[in-house]
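This section describes the prediction task in plain terms. A model, or a person checking by hand, is given the sequence of a single protein chain and must write out its three-dimensional structure as a string of tokens. No templates, partner chains or ligands are provided. The sample shown here is typical of the held-out split.
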Amino acid sequence: MKALFALALYGFCAFAQAQGFPSKPLRLIVPFPPGGVTDISSRVVAQKLSAELGQAVVVENRAGASGVIGAEAGAKAAADGYTLTMGNISTLAINAVTFAKLPYDPLASFAPISMVAIQPLVIAVHPSVPAQSLAELVALAKAQPGKLNFGTAGSSIYLAVEFFNTAAGIKMNHVPYKGSSPAITDLVGGQLQVLFDPFSSLYPQVRSGKARGLAVTTLKRSAQAPSLPTVAELGFPGFDVSSWQGIVVPAGTPKDIIERLHRDVVKVLASQEVRDQFAQHSAEASPSTPEQFGAYIRQEIARWKKVAHDAGVKPE
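The expected answer:
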């Protein structure tokens, strides 16, 4: 009897909480530094979401350890709907593969709200590299195994390159960076020969001639750079890697609050203004149901586990 009463009381409290939600500002944790693709998407969404919710949505950058610090903070926040986390391919999928021990579980620690955006990576080389195409880069890497250095700003991009290395049968030396900015600086300066990085970060250097773009990693060409072919059409059918983002809340957040947040996030993503802002960075708004987003996260974890296994990448 007491258990039934407690359950009923919990349900009533959750309902009452949801009915008055939101009654104060929300925070949107971004597990990466300002200026990157995840941060850009977060700020576009936060601004419009504030108007829909009638409360400020404050972006809070909690960078470090390939997004682990921010994701852990989001996972351990109160499950009341007032703390959102902008998860991405690193925090919700690849970290589960590359870290031997995570302080959060990408599936069990969060309740999905919606997918937000998908953006291609660009493959670029320094102008001094004697490769005018992806095929020439592969030939060069095969002729000089272990001589080319490729940079990555995070575990997700590292696995993306290893995915390509395995598909192409080549080996390049990995140089890890703490963010896109220092990696791009070294590419432009000639200290780095090859870089895979999100379109919004790297393509401006290609456009200016400071780097040579060879391909994009999604199945579809970018509308912002239609002359750049896809990896898939250059002899690697099915090669598809994107930088994706999506909003999650702590597990245990009341269902009514999840539904309210989902409804408003999807409305924001349907806005032509938001879609236009995303398009400037070659990102595509990709709203989903919570169930669809959860299924996508599970699918991505399984996919990258196979990539890591095939490439011989061990969790650390």
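For orientation: The domain at 120-234 is CATH 3.40.190.10 (D-Maltodextrin-Binding Protein; domain 2).
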